[in-house]
């Protein structure tokens, strides 16, 4: 296959220890690897921030940090985890997997691919540097609501610039996915034959292209309000602080589906393999993904039920939000129907995928409760909401990303990981993630607001539990790091098939996959 | 290898005990039914939605765990090959849809009641500041600030924490029982949110805009809440305390605290 490799491409990578290889690489696998390691490093940094929060909340009273720094930890933790962990991890998976899944040699736009990755370390270095600036880091929440966010000190323009960079990087990554999927499929790979991971990413890419510019517009208006005398969000000058919330959540709600749709693709790949049975309802999975993406654009104000919208607005956003339960339900039912009368085994990727289905559904249930506007008045801005979105993001998105790493790692590095350690990692993560986030439902319902550094005495037991869980969950992820490094260095050799009867073009390539995936297009059945 | 397998079995058991054990801590873990008709409706709807979710979870996870138990390779089953069924897929699209419509009807009704601020008996204008509240009784001519009373030494752990730690204020909002009290909510600086769980009222205080909410409290008592929208450094330290008293007691309280000239002034302005 190397005979048809393009002229200026190297057939083999330079040494992995050469800095130039990683700086100048245009190879989809190298860039995918960079994204995934970057995401893991950000996961550790964002995780330490979470532990600062949980340490302060271990007991009532102020013990360790100043409330302003506490607020800046909650703000930064969210920005790190959303823009620095989940989004880059999915882009990393897209880079590694999409060309292999559709029978292409590489991504469509390799130089832009390099650029979209290398923006990120600079963007996040700038974001983190704001913690040392006069007035501290951003402390108005990741939602950046004015007027509070306009009280930020010197950090504000740097925060906004770094968010522009993150947005630029995601838009470029998304354009690359669209260009690759629409132009580089092997002959015979029709759209409705694509693996669901490719489908969910294609739809995610369109969401990104649609909403990242909206965020860019919103935060630029914040900048001009602060420094150039405009009054977009200042009622005294004819503006409206609530308008920012509409702009932000018009970005923000599709954004939360950007954070979950590729997970649906990952789980839809893993369940059929370990159930040894084809995915149930492939077409309805594709349509459900499309329906979720469409609905994501018309539900944004359910984040704002208490801002004082007119009754008609409240009702519209309540009904539209409840509708999301229908396509999401279809997905869960289809996964279970895939398992039904299969012949299942429970390797680590399958365990994480099953954990995903159960715990993501728990997040879905609390989501349905939150959709009921009159009841949301009691839930809004409490720990019930914190529990809800952490259930969909941690045992949701993060578990799916971990499942994907276990599932495709043998293809990436050519070695198997340790199944025993993998299962330990799964059980520790599952125990601690529930110990962390389940009690948050209770304190939220009992009346504990979110984003507070200190709390009334009746919330103390569940907060203590959550803190213990958070440390356990954080430490368990170090086991994951050890396991991945061990697999790369010294695991048993993997076959090209890796998993019994796994479907998909990536399993037709040798393990580890060659530097250029498909130099000649594969035949599609 | 054997040791790791045994460890994993123990971890599985530990998981089950964590999930069941977390329910026995003895502190409040559910929403309050509150002290107004609306808050009781909200609580009922919350419980209906909760039990509905429990039923769905039992059915869906039940099917899943049965499948995990019964359809495993180690039991020597050969996998089926079916992969679609339009009938089944239509059924599990339509059933949730019907359930959602059933759920949205009472929610719509309650929401319409919550938005009906007409026929009120008195009005309190609430203004959020970083980090305290200002209350102004529009008809009765009383106004005052209300801020956290918990001592710094309690917050800094130098003194034992009192029963109402962080939920006590210097001047409570006094309202009459059985009267429809309208709240006009705004802010002087950043966005705050005025929240009292027992009244099921949570409304953002937005600078430059006035939001409306209302409550008719059924039982005398002291009801505590907090600012619910991140408003800066002391966001966690601006509680709301409402004292609901019988009407006669409320009248006495007004007589003792009113500033007559400011009330007329305001009444003239608001014409």
What does this structure look like?
- Chain A is mainly α and about 525 residues long.
- Chain B has 2 domains: about 80 residues, Orthogonal Bundle (Helix Hairpins), CATH 1.10.287.90; about 150 residues, Immunoglobulin-like (Sandwich).
- In chain B, strand 1 and strand 2 form a beta hairpin.
- In chain B, helix 2 packs antiparallel against helix 3.
- The C terminus of chain B is likely disordered.
- Chains A and B meet through helix 3, helix 9, helix 10, helix 11 and helix 12 of A and helix 1, helix 2, helix 3, strand 7 and strand 9 of B.
Low-confidence segments of chain B = 267-271
**Largest sheet: spatial strand order of chain B:** 3-2-1-5-8
Question: Please, what is the oligomeric state?
Answer: heterodimer
Count of extended strands of chain B: 10
Judged by helices, strands and strand pairing, the structural class of chain A is mainly alpha
List the helices and strands and how they pair.
The complex is a heterodimer of chains A (525) and B (271).
Chain A: H1 19-24, H2 28-56, H3 67-102, H4 110-129, H5 155-183, H6 196-227, H7 241-258, H8 261-275, H9 282-295, H10 311-323, H11 325-339, H12 348-371, H13 373-379, H14 383-413, H15 419-445, H16 460-490
Helix pairs in contact in A: 2-3, 2-4, 2-16, 3-4, 3-5, 3-14, 4-5, 5-6, 6-7, 6-8, 6-9, 8-11, 8-12, 8-14, 9-11, 11-12, 12-14, 12-15, 14-15, 15-16
Chain B: H1 2-21, H2 37-70, H3 86-115, E1 122-129, E2 132-137, E3 142-146, H4 152-155, E4 173-176, E5 181-187, E6 192-196, E7 201-205, E8 211-215, E9 221-227, E10 239-245, H5 247-257, H6 260-270
Parallel strand pairs in B: 1-5, 4-10
Antiparallel strand pairs in B: 1-2, 2-3, 5-8, 6-7, 6-9, 9-10
Helix pairs in contact in B: 2-3
């Amino acid at each position: 296959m190397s005979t048809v490799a393009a002229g200026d491409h190297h057939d083999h990578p330079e040494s992995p220890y050469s800095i130039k290889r990683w700086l100048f690489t245009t190879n989809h696998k190298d860039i995918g690897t960079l994204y995934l390691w970057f995401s893991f490093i950000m996961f550790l940094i964002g995780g330490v921030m979470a532990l600062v929060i949980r340490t302060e909340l271990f007991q009532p009273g102020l013990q360790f940090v100043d409330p302003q720094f506490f607020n800046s930890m909650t703000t930064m933790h969210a920005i790190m985890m959303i823009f620095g962990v989940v989004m880059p991890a999915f882009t990393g998976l897209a880079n590694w997997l999409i060309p292999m899944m559709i029978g292409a040699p590489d991504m469509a736009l390799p130089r832009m691919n390099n650029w979209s990755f290398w923006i990120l370390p600079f963007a996040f270095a700038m974001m983190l540097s704001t913690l040392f600036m006069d007035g501290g880091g951003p402390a108005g929440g990741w939602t950046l609501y004015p007027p509070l966010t306009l009280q930020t000190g010197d950090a504000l323009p740097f925060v906004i610039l770094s968010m522009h960079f993150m947005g630029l990087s995601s838009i470029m990554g998304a354009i690359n996915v669209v260009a690759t999927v629409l132009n580089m499929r092997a002959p015979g790979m029709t759209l409705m034959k694509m693996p669901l991971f490719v489908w969910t990413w294609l739809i995610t890419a369109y969401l990104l292209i649609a909403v990242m510019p909206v965020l860019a517009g919103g935060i630029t208006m914040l900048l001009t309000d602060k420094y150039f005398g405009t009054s977009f969000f200042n009622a005294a000058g004819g503006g409206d602080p609530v308008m920012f919330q509409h702009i932000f959540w018009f970005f923000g709600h599709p954004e939360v589906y950007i954070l979950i749709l590729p997970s649906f693709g990952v789980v839809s790949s893993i369940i059929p393999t370990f159930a040894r049975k084809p995915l149930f309802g492939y077409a309805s999975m594709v349509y459900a993904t499309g329906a979720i993406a469409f609905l994501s654009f018309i539900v944004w104000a359910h984040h704002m039920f208490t801002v004082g919208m007119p009754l008609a607005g409240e009702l519209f956003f309540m009904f539209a939000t409840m509708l999301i339960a229908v396509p999401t339900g279809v997905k869960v039912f289809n996964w279970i129907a895939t398992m039904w009368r299969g012949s299942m085994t429970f390797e680590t990727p399958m365990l994480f995928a099953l954990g995903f289905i159960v715990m993501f559904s728990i997040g879905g249930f609390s989501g349905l409760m939150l959709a009921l506007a009159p009841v949301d008045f009691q839930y809004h801005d409490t720990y019930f909401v914190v529990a809800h979105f952490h259930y969909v993001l941690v045992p949701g998105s993060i578990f799916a990303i971990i499942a994907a790493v276990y599932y495709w790692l043998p293809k990436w590095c050519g070695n198997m990981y340790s199944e025993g350690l993998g299962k330990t990692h799964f059980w520790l993560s599952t125990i601690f993630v529930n110990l962390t986030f389940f009690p948050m439902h209770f304190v939220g319902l009992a009346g504990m607001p979110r984003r507070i550094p200190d709390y009334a005495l009746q919330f103390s037991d569940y907060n203590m539990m959550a803190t213990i869980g958070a440390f356990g969950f954080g430490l368990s992820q170090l086991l994951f790091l050890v396991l991945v490094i061990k697999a790369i260095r010294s695991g048993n050799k993997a076959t090209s098939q890796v998993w019994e009867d796994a479907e998909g073009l990536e399993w037709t390539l040798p393990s580890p996959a060659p530097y250029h995936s498909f130099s000649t297009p594969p035949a599609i059945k | 290898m054997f040791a790791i397998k045994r460890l994993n079995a123990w971890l599985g058991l530990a998981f089950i005990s964590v999930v069941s054990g977390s329910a026995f801590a003895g502190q409040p873990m559910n929403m309050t039914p509150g002290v107004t008709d609306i808050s009781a409706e909200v609580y009922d709807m919350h419980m209906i939605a909760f039990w509905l979710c429990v039923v769905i979870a039992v059915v869906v996870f039940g099917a899943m765990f049965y499948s995990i138990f019964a359809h495993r390779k180690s039991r020597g089953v050969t996998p089926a090959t079916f992969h679609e069924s339009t009938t089944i897929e239509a059924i599990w699209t339509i059933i949730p849809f019907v359930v959602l419509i059933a759920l949205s009807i009472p929610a719509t009704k309650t929401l319409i009641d919550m938005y009906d601020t007409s026929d009120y008996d008195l009005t309190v204008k609430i203004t959020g500041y970083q980090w305290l509240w200002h209350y102004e009784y529009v008809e009765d001519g009383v106004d005052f600030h209300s801020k956290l009373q918990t001592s710094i030494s309690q917050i800094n752990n130098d003194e034992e924490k009192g029963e109402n730690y962080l939920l006590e204020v210097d001047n409570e909002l006094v309202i009459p029982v059985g009267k429809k009290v309208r709240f006009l909510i705004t802010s002087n600086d950043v966005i705050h949110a005025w929240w009292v769980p027992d009244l099921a009222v949570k409304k953002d205080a937005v600078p430059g805009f006035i939001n409306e909410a209302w409550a008719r409290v059924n039982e005398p008592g002291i009801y505590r809440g907090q600012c619910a929208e991140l408003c800066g450094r002391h966001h966690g330290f601006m509680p709301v305390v409402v004292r609901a008293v019988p009407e006669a007691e409320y009248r006495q309280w007004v007589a003792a605290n009113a500033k007559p000239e400011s009330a007329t002034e305001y009444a003239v302005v608001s014409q």
